[in-house]
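Build the 3D complex.
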Amino acid sequence: MLDAIVTFGLVAAAAVYVAWRLFLSRKAKQRIRGLLNGQAECCPADEASGQCPGGCSGCDHAAPAPRQR
Amino acid sequence: MLDTVAKTYRVAFVGNPNCGKTALFNALTGSRQKVANYPGVTVERKEGQLITPGGKTVTVIDLPGTYSLRGRSPDEVVTRDAVLGKLRNFERPDLLVCVADATNLRLILRLVLEVSSTGLPMILALNMSDIAENRGIRVDAEGLSRELGIPVVRSVAVSRAGVSELLGELDTALTAARHGTASAMTWAERGADEIRQAHRLADQMVARFVNTPDIPRDMSSRIDKVLLHPVAGILILLAVLFFVFQAVYTWAGPPMDMISDGFDALAATVQETLPEGLLASLLTDGIITGVGSVLVFLPQIVILFFFIILLEDSGYMARAAFLTDRIVGGAGLHGRSFIPLLSSFACAIPGVMATRVIENRRQRLATIMVAPLMTCSARIPVYTLLIGAFVPRSTVGGFIDLQGLVLFSLYLAGIVSAFVVALVFRTFVWRGKTEPFIMELPGYKLPMLRSVAMGVFQRAMMFVRRAGTLILSMMILIWFLSTFPGAPEGATDAAINYSFAGIIGHAIEPVLAPIGFNWQIAVALIPGMAAREVAVGALATVYAVGGTALDEVSLGATIAAQWPLATALSLLAWYVFAPQCAPTLAVVRRETNSWRWPVLMFVYMMTLAYTASFVVYRTATYLGG
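Done.
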């Protein structure tokens, strides 16, 4: 029984890893990361600054905003 | 006080190609970005962090080399836009470090004059000062500093000389920049008169502050007389490449046997320790056999990259680009295509990205389309397995290793087919003139042992990491697909025939039968789309679950016993052409910003692969193979 649990656990982990590496888009990965971290979903960049307008982190726009420097 | 603590300064490195920007970047930040002794290695910005002696936190940005801010090729556009603060999500730097090749200051001085109009504070780093000194070139750094109105520092990036002086200057300049008014942006693209004026100014400065000996004490030009000879040079290049492939085969044997024995011992230990069951089968037939059959090729990859890095660092690769320019140009490619094509021997992904140095869009697209035809390192496990299994270990003419000769021929087949395909594209798809290739040949340098060792280590770790992550995971899935569902009661065939892998393999087999592929190969080709070398591990696992091979050596023996020679030759031909790498297609999509080119690449490469395999298989079968 334990033999089967460990084996299928390894197979499931491998399937998740392969799916993550090969099949999920960058956007989907960001969304999952956000959900796992309990963060809000990424919003579009602020038009004027091209930066994150605030409220989330983890996407391309979330480079440190000028006002933080 | 709060400002001092919170502020992260941004310092960008600009300079001409191949002046050592990345080497200086690595020396300052402790990064390990690729450096080589030829222009065009860096095609996108790289960032690293450092803390100055004065406690300032600095983000250092390494930018692609450029001769001006005009931005004619995609990599030059990155540099221009970064300096001008026009890149999306990229804040303008607080300070620029202009990195100069101290042996050749004319072009960098012109760039310094152009960049000074951006209003950004600057420091000039005279890199490779040791080589300049050896050649008898004396630079009056103080005079230059006074003339340009910026600090000038001497440095030797590879030995970290001058790094502390540069850090000190960074501290001073950043403090001044914080209180200064560097925001005035006055740069505008210059007209021909202004460019000529800047050239004159640069020439005057070189005349005043650089003292070059009348007779260059330079070995490079004497060596070049031989190595760049139109006939002797090509023969030497072929001999060098031939020696490398011979070495890959002959030197890698003992360490490969050791790794193979290690995995055998590990599998035996697991079998003895664990009771017979699913887990034992997964570990031995799936993980150890699959991953082991890929990792066994590590010595060959290490030897190949040792030579490539050695040739790059010595300056010989740039000569190879010069020598092959006529051939590359004859195929309608630009001379600058050589470096992307060379990079593709490691992996097509950096090769495709390196095409950013090509200004002409048609020539850039043609180079992108043929880059995957160059033999990447992921093909080595497949080639080695098949050559080891089907080509006898003998010599030709008493000293040429036959297996090495076949490997060399496969590499040559990739190169020749790339040129032929490029010629077809340039003749029928992207017509137009081939632009002349102007390249500044770097001086010869004794390769730094540390740099070579680091480059080889990085390549080896990349291979091992891939084997330990993606390949390991895929081997587990292949094992699962080869094991489940089990054979039904009363079944007479081997259990694997009833598995998911067996069902998939048998379904694809009719399509691949005309080129001599059996269902096991069909199964191996599917995960091989993710990474070519996975096909070897997949074959090992499929045969192991089927009850035959256990490692690469016995996998070789198994396929040698079960496959006709025609099938092996057909599979080799397939791997020369097949687009068996989804990540490469994804990068082509990103670089061309269109799905049209990756789709065209997939279709033409698949057609070539199938046709070549068909011809090879039918011919070999006809001849009795």
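The helical segments of chain A are 2-23, 26-37.
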